[in-house]
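User: Hi! Is it possible to get a structure for several chains at once, not just one? Here's what I have:
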Amino acid sequence: MTSYRLASGGAANRGRSLTFTFDGRTYKGFEGDTLASALLANDQMLMARSFKYHRPRGVVTAGSAEPNALMTIGAGARSEPNARATVVELYDRLVAVSQNRWPSLKHDFGALNNVLSPFLGAGFYYKTFMWPALFWEKLYEPLIRRAAGLGKAVMQADPDRYEKSWTHCDLLVIGAGPAGLTAALAAGRAGARVILADEGFRLGGSMLSESAMVGGMPACDFATTTVEELATLPNVTLMPRTTVFGWYDDMVFGAVERVQKHVATPSPDLPMERLWRIVAKRAILAAGAEERPLVFGGNDRPGVMTAGAIRTYLNRYGVAVGGKVAVFTNGGSGYRTAADLVARGVDVTAIIDARPGSADPVPQGIRVIRGGSVTDTRGWHRIDGLIAERSGFEEVIACDALAMSGGWSPVVHLMCQRGAKPVWSDEKQAFMAPDLGGAFVAAGSAAGFDGLSDCLKDGAAKAHTVLESLGRRALPLALPRVEGEYDASFAPLWYVPGAKNKAFVDFQNDVHVGDLGLAQREGFRHIEHTKRYTTAGMATDQGKLGNINTVGIVAGMRGVSPAEIGTTTFRPFYTPVSFGALAGSARAEHAAPVRTSPLAGWARKNGAAFVEAGPWHRSAWFPREGEKTWRESVDREVLNVRANAGLCDVSTLGKIEIFGAGAAEFLDRIYCNGFLKLPVGKARYGLMLREDGIVFDDGTTSRLSENHYVMTTTTAYAAEVLSHMEFAAQTFWPELDVRFVSVTDQWAQMSLAGPKARIILGRVVQDDISDAAFPFLAAKEVTLRGGLRARLFRISFSGELAYELAVPAGFGEAVADAIMDAGHEDGICAYGVEALNVLRVEKGHVTHSELEGRTTADDVGLGRMMAMQKPDFIGKRLSTRFGLTAADRLQLVGLKPVEADKEIRAGAHLLKDQAKPSLANDQGFVSSACFSPTLGHFIALAMLKSGRERFGEKIIVWDGLRGTEVPAEVCPPVFVDPENTKLHL
Amino acid sequence: MASLITCPHCGARPKEEFSVRGAAMPARPSPMAKDEAWHAYVYIRDNPKGRYQEYWHHAAGCRRWLVVDRDNLTHDVFGVTDAADFVQARGIE
Amino acid sequence: MSINLLHRHVLEDYISGFETDPNPNHVAVSRRPVIFSVLAHRGQETAVAEALGSAHGVVLRFCSPSEWLLVSRTAGPATVAGILSDIAGASFADQSDGRVLMTISGPSVRNILGKCVAVDLHPEVFAEDYSANMLFCHVAANVARSGPDTFEIIVPRSLAGSAFEELLEMGREHALTRGFSD
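Assistant: Yes, the chains can be modeled jointly so their relative placement is included. Here is the combined structure:
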């Protein structure tokens, strides 16, 4: 037995035993254990294999910086790879599996890499697998990926729910250790809205692992008492299991709460994790400090751990990591660990202190080797001895665990995520938090304080300063007396010379000191280059443990101060965040909001197939029994509209209500055609340009009364047009009295088209809608039989006699049903946007297939609409530019295949007859194409160079994607009823 | 993750409520202005690193156009005004 | 011939059949509230706001310095239109069919709404009778506090289904129930 649970002590609940498995073996732990502490309690020190060399690895830390003890937790769809055993809260029936080994953790075939390691140094892949280039993707990369790696993601869908939430506070305290607790308490008692977040499942931070007495009780109990008081304050929110992972603009913090990660049977009503966006007026970073490993030969042997981690396992979890523990230190932490171990009856074989002398108290009877170092360790799956060196003399010291302490680095990551760099302190031999001007400050050991009493004091002091800046006063906090604290100061020691084995800097990515030297020699000297060349700091732990040592060692190699080397860039996330949490509820059908037409129910009843059009789901076609393809349905719908009548949902069009004495003038400036003289009761087709003279959008606007209009826009541009109008009204012509509001959602709008449209509509509408009373382009309020008020517009997209009827949305389905009933005897059908598209192509009407951001009004044959006599309209000035009026611009034409059975596809390019496909020979392209059931062959709208001069010419429609060339005749773009006789029936 | 814009009408709001149109400085020239003025207005924008005034539309809020005065490097926001007030002030200058 | 037209609420399918006895946390959807958009014309903003503020039987929801929603559960649309016609400098449009009004209440209401909106709803910041437009479950909406633990939310009809589903999902951990209020 080497590591074991002590007979008593620790904060784990010994009254509640939990069962779990690791690599198929069953173990027992306690409630309040982490997976790592429970494994150690069961003498399972070997926990993983390293990434590159497959070296056996044990746990190094007891917290979120852990580089080694990565495991896959859970089974099936709930498998989570690369979880750090040091932060996984133990629960009953937890399943853990080791990673990156084959066939087993103890006997790993990949360890061959360790033998080959002299050839696998930094940059090895880049140098070795350079050629043949083709082999990289096919051979080398898959091989390397199989050999090196972490856990594997499962392919099943995640069965759990995730949520996102916002919250707001005066003060966010990050970290619930000594400084965080006093900061939260001071601010909480002062009545401020406080959030105290900590990544651990139990609040208290380092106090849970301390052997000192605080306020006359064990530090752990003091923490518990303080947390209990905080919990009674209604203005304080405690957030355990919550990692604040990022600091973003405007004092927004990102945090992830592990709501049910520790639960054996998750509740379906709770999220697995919750992503928080915390808006804080002020924030205090009390994230503590990270103990640095020492970089010496063989420092990655399982059983070599930071001194602080060994104390945590001992004091918090009641676990001794070994029976014979050696200590290698350059500061007080090592002595404290030795003292705590001795106090709990654990044998300490020696303290090897790199310093020639120190005032740290030595536990009685413990041998200290001053000015000594460790040059190598022994053992394979676990350390069984070390080689200590002093003044050229070596000795072997037997041990089954080695505590190492290289000093402390304040955890300042969050404060450096928005560009500020940490500041090197010669005095502290550490990078310190930058000064951010008071809104976000560090406290406690994150601010460089060593002692427990200093941290308690600093937390309260920082809270007072912060509250003052918010105009709040806090009463001074009576600070507890601390007994038995130790001096955590240390002498710098970046690299232990004389290593007889690899000395690892980055455990997770297997980067050792030799790699850093190689990077310097090969010119990758900038710390960001060193990082990328060696991959130091690029693993999932992002170098929390190793980065500062990397900087120190590189500084030593270059003979400069670490200040001159600087750190690599700090970025969110502080620790890995699951994709589930980042996605929240926005997945599958909830990925984005869906807009539902008020006529969706009517369309469903009539058997519609739906198509996504932006956020809308629009009815695309209405298949009937026996129709096998969408084309059959569309052809039928088109022919029926031309012969009888059809009803189509056009509710998705943007509808904007426009008011004001300046409305007419405003519309006259927004549209390129004239609107001043539009009579009341009439609709007009309007074309909007962008300021650069290109067409923006089209639609109709109707004048309902003198100073009241309603505009329709295309479905796609509804939001853009309203924004554009608001912008123009606010910034171009603020003197015009005009106001708008979107009424898109208020109205269900349906188009009734076809020669029988009037007869059918007459059965539903009370008013006289004869051609004389309600001529083409009439737009009026009408009353439906039964009394419902509605708006009726005689406008046509299909080229048929057509009306658009708008009714309050809640009545849409009922009115559409009534029209279908009224039209039954006349053969009415429902038609969808596909048929609508065929009808408009037949009629030569343009949509955003033609108005695609490059075309002018003249290009699409609407040049005569431009009322150039108007003093001003948007787009007027630049529309007359040479480039936009050139004779060889692409112009809208129609196309019909020379051989009637040939198909023309949209996107195909146009070539002169006999010309070879090339960019130089390109004459234009097909913008819209469809089969015209009315004509019995394919037709198309196309943009063709000088197209309007080329009617009758035979050209080639070249579809490079499908490899077809179809001869076609250029013709005017209106295929059906060019004289518009049907409109005026 | 997030950043906030303080709308003068609605208060602090996440950037998702807004859409950005670009530089606020150039005023729309008069219809009679020279070609160069129109060309500059439609196409030419400074692209400074640092402090910048931009049109932002509070599309999911009050639907007012705003002028956000901010540093595009640090995202420090120095002020947010209603675009109508901004235009009026520019007119007076 | 007279046609009998049935009015249909857009959330009918989301509520009918799911109605239970309301839990402490409950969302109630109004079947046929009267909702008008009111726009103040240039220079008339203050006068219109004052006139709207003194109107009876209606509540006012702030949208922008020149735009409000006027909501009534008691007066009919003609009555509200009548009130509005009498206000000089105001234009208005009936949105009763274009907006969905829901009232969410209960002890956990702020926790639930924290997952729906980014705005601080603490009573010191977002007091009773305060209202504003904001994103609610990714949808542009108007949110008002009508009581210590009660909020009224107005969403566009076409997006009401999406927003309502999301709200229910966010209310799951607090056992949020749903129903029509009338």
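Chain A touches chain C through 53 residues (CB under 8 Å). Residues 452-469 of chain A form the longest helix (18 residues).

User: Great, thank you!
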